[in-house]
Design goal:
Blueprint: E1 4-15, E2 21-22, E3 25-26, H1 36-46, H2 48-52, H3 58-61, H4 68-81, H5 86-122, H6 128-160, E4 180-182, E5 192-201, E6 207-213, H7 223-234, E7 240-243, H8 251-260, E8 263-265, H9 274-280, H10 283-305, H11 316-337
Parallel strand pairs: 1-7, 7-8
Antiparallel strand pairs: 1-5, 2-3, 4-5, 5-6
Helix pairs in contact: 1-4, 1-5, 1-6, 4-5, 5-6
Length: about 350
């Protein structure tokens, strides 16, 4: 058993990627979570909440009608024809204007209804219970109106204007605007949505620390922070430090780490000279890499038994709290087994 430290980043999904192939062959693809048509369709469906409150104040909400089936059909057609071929792109460009028109109409209706509700709140025409209900509804509508306007703008710029919109300017979910698009180079999942989680594991599979990143940093930039947190928690640096090659920065950086840590097991990226090859073939290096591989089982355990693979909380703060509660439960089980 090594008294060492493992560092491993992993992805916590907030949103699943839907669609694909079922047992009976290809099925109609559901719009991918985070795509423009999916977010627009979610906004249109969200407006059902406003229609539901007609029972509270029909005069303020008005007599507009939703066309959720029509919007869903447009979103499904866009997902079906979304492919790199020229004919598919032409079909998508024809389908986007009616979808944007429908969502813009609902957005305009929402703004009008919110304005009327605000006027009636100022006139104090509601009883106490209804006033609280309408006040919360106004705040909710204002939030979703702002997000919907942003999504409409990014769809117009990207699809109709042909502009390449940076991911940092996109909204992938109107319910969780903090959600980040992540590309980890996996063929089965080229694009995922969620946040990166950094796990620190010591001996006996005990997770000593974790961190959730709102924006994904580069792995190599995390090494100093990992060691600093470990020293602050345990009062000293680890005797052994193992991580995957994603944490490799340079041989000079590894040399500095080996001055303060007896054994550092981080593989080099790219070609190696004979000295570097001998370093990675050393028994202690291989033993630490086997030790590092143990965290893969812990990650699988967290996802299978504690359902860490998906978070159902809304804000980024509660998202982080969810990770913490899962790690805490994992450590309790580990301690019980010692």
């Amino acid at each position: 058993m090594f008294a060492g430290l493992i560092a491993r980043p992993d992805l916590l999904h907030r949103l699943p990627v839907l669609g694909g192939q079922g047992e009976g062959g290809l099925r109609p693809q559901i719009p991918q979570e985070g795509s423009d048509p999916h977010v627009l369709a979610r906004k249109d469906r969200r407006q059902n909440r406003q229609q539901h409150h007609r029972g509270v104040d029909r005069e303020a909400v008005g007599e507009g009608h939703l066309q959720t089936k029509y919007v869903k059909k447009l979103a499904l057609d866009i997902a079906r024809y979304a492919n790199p071929t020229e004919s598919g792109q032409e079909k998508v460009e024809r389908l986007y204007p009616p979808l944007l028109e429908q969502v813009s109409r609902v957005l305009s209706w929402s703004r009008q209804a919110r304005g009327r509700c605000e006027e009636r709140l100022l006139k104090e025409v509601y009883d106490v219970r209804t006033r609280d209900l309408v006040s919360n509804l106004v705040i909710e509508m204002q939030t979703f109106e702002k997000l919907t306007a942003h999504v409409i703008d990014q769809a117009q710029r990207r699809v109709l204007g042909g502009e390449s919109v940076p991911n940092s300017e996109k909204i992938f979910s109107i319910f969780e605007p903090h959600t980040e698009l992540l590309k980890r180079g996996k063929a089965a999942k080229p694009v995922e949505f969620g946040h990166m989680v950094l796990l620190h594991q010591v001996e006996n599979k005990f997770i000593s620390d974790y961190e959730v990143f709102e924006k994904r940093p580069s792995d190599e930039s995390l090494v100093d922070g990992i060691l600093e947190n470990h020293q602050q928690l345990f009062g000293h640096l680890p005797e052994n430090f193992a991580a995957d090659k994603g944490f490799y920065e340079s041989m000079e950086k590894l040399g500095k780490l080996e001055v303060i840590i007896p054994n550092v097991s981080i593989a080099k990226k790219g070609s190696r000279n004979p000295e570097e090859t001998a370093r990675e073939h050393a028994p202690i290096f291989k033993a630490l890499q086997r030790f590092r591989a143990g965290i893969e089982g812990s990650i699988s355990f967290l996802k299978r038994c504690f359902k860490l693979g998906r978070c159902l909380y809304r804000s980024f703060e509660t998202f982080c709290s969810s990770v913490g509660s899962h790690v805490f439960a994992h450590n309790l089980v580990v301690l019980a087994r010692l």
